[in-house]
Amino acid sequence: MGHQVEVDQAFVQAPEHRPKTVISEAGGIPLIDLSPLFSDSAGAVVPVTLVQQVEAASRDWGFFQVINHGIPPELLKAAETTEREFFALSEEEKKKVRRDEVNPLGYYESEHTKNVRDWKEVIDLVLHEPSEVDVRGLELKNKWPQVPPGFRETFEEYGKSLEKLAFRLLELIALSLNLPAKRLNVFFEEQTTFIRLNHYPPCPYPDLALGVGRHKDAGALTVLYQDSTGGLDVKRKSDGNWVRVKPIPNSFIINVGDIIQVWSNDKYESVEHRVSLNSARDRFSIPFFFYPASHTNVKPLEELVDEKNPARYDEYNWGEFFKTRKDSNYKKSEAENIQITHFKRV
Ligand SMILES: O=C(O)CCC(=O)C(=O)O
Ligand SMILES: [Fe+2]
What family is this (predicted)? Predict the structure, then answer.
């Protein structure tokens, strides 16, 4: 990735998408304390007030932050340290686990969002390696780096812990939609969930480029860890302004993705977000993308539609949707990305 002062046009956002006005940490996204889930009587009943907080945050923001989520701070520290060590390696070392034509997992430094290059490098890991090749006949095996030592152990443990949290959050979302707590779990018996490690190096022209261009997450839920640098901007639903998400130590940022938007028949919306850069500091983040099985056909849930509130989307297949989206993110093309709006009924 270039550090030259000359502007590389591949990274330059169209003027209307450059990060000019960001409301800094004011009127921030809701903060939800999950400790009631882990009290002595946990598992018995989820307090109504917690469900109401999740409902309001999902409806009004599509985003919230959680604290007291049950993931040990030592594990977060280990994950961040290991991530920093990996990205500090030489290009040559990192390219040993680079993604290739056959395997879309691994290290990558040239991703595009909406056909503009993102100022970042990543490594992608699936949570569960499928026992069979995928629909394209591709093998989805993780490429585990040999260095730093402990990389694999750390992220396997991280994945297991995050998966537990993701299921608890999914249950809260189900309850908040007046559904039985485990109503959505069936879609995740098999999963296409993946973990991405993001490194955003300092950028000499942070007013022109973005770490990740504006987008909505395609999956069900995202559980994001960010370091103390800050840079995630969320498009506030109430007024359309970009709001910077304040880094809170040992917290996660949760957002509902397109799939929950469709399941909820637009009660909840997947909200646009992006990553702004700065010229002085690196930023590290770790999104956990909670994705259902590839055979899942996504459509508004029957319990949430009726004559007065008919289904607003046609059914689509998750595996097909994701494959199409992913292909377009890895190269610059003139075609528009696939979006759930393509399945929206008019
Ligand atoms: O790094 C972040 O804070 C968010 C990244 C993101 O939105 C994504 O990878 O979908
Ligand atoms: Fe995202």
Answer: Belongs to the iron/ascorbate-dependent oxidoreductase family.
* Residues near ligand 2 ion, CB 5 Å cutoff: 217
Which residues, at least 6 apart from 285, have a Cβ–Cβ distance to it below 8 Å? Answer: 197, 198, 200, 224, 225, 226, 227, 232, 275
Render pLDDT for 291-331 as a digit per residue (tens, 0 to 9).
Answer: 999 999 999 999 999 999 999 999 999 999 988 887 766 55
Q: How far apart are CA 307 and CA 141, in angstroms?
A: 45
The domain segmentation of the chain, as residue ranges, is 20-343
Q: Which CATH superfamily is domain 20-343 in?
A: B-lactam Antibiotic, Isopenicillin N Synthase; Chain (2.60.120.330)
pTM above 0.95, yes or no: no
Please give all residues whose beta carbon lies within 6 A of any atom in ligand 1, as ranges. Answer: 196, 198, 212, 217, 224, 226, 232, 273, 275, 285, 287
Strand partners, 121: 199
Q: What is d(CA 147, CA 150) in angstroms, rounded to the nearest whole number?
A: 8
Atom 9 in ligand 1: residue holding the nearest Cα: 287
Between the alpha carbon of residue 315 and those of residues 113, 177, 222, 271, 326, the distances in Å are 25, 20, 22, 21, 20
